[in-house]
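ARCHIVE CARD
CATEGORY: sequence design from structure
SOURCE FIELD: tokenized fold
FIELD CONTENT:
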């Protein structure tokens, strides 16, 4: 149990750094494009790759004969699906905020608020999938 808790804490720390990278790129992309889905896809790839590289070195142990290159490919395929659906959800949450909330400060930062709202869900999913791919395959 102690090892699992330490693993989760390390993963959250690395994911936090990956999320900051993702979030910064997302904000910068927002100055170039208003398409939240595209901005999220671009920023997510940077964060996802960062977390995979460091989590496979610092958090998870690969004891199988399947190389990390193949496991990265599996993780990327999973991320393609997840990022697509999360990007659509991000767009929907953003539209909901813009349509339902009239406070200009909140409406002005709706894309940022939307990204923050969906992050916990993706973090839990990413931990479960990465643990399964790296340690159980």
């Amino acid at each position: 149990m102690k090892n699992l808790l330490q693993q989760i804490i390390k993963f959250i720390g690395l994911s936090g750094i990956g999320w900051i990278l993702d979030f910064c790129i997302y904000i910068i992309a927002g100055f170039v494009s208003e398409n939240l889905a595209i901005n999220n896809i671009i920023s997510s790839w940077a964060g996802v790759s960062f977390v995979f590289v460091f989590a496979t070195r610092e958090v998870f142990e690969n004891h199988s004969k399947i190389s990390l290159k193949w496991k990265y490919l599996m993780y990327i395929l999973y991320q393609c699906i997840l990022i697509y659906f999360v990007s659509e959800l991000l767009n929907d949450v953003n539209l909901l905020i813009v349509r339902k909330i009239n406070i200009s400060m909140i409406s002005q930062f709706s894309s940022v608020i939307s990204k923050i709202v969906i992050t916990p869900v993706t973090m839990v999913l990413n931990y479960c999938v990465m643990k399964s791919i790296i340690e159980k395959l």
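CARD ANNOTATION: The chain has a mean pLDDT of 89. DSSP finds five helices and no strands in the chain.
SHELF: design records, drawer C
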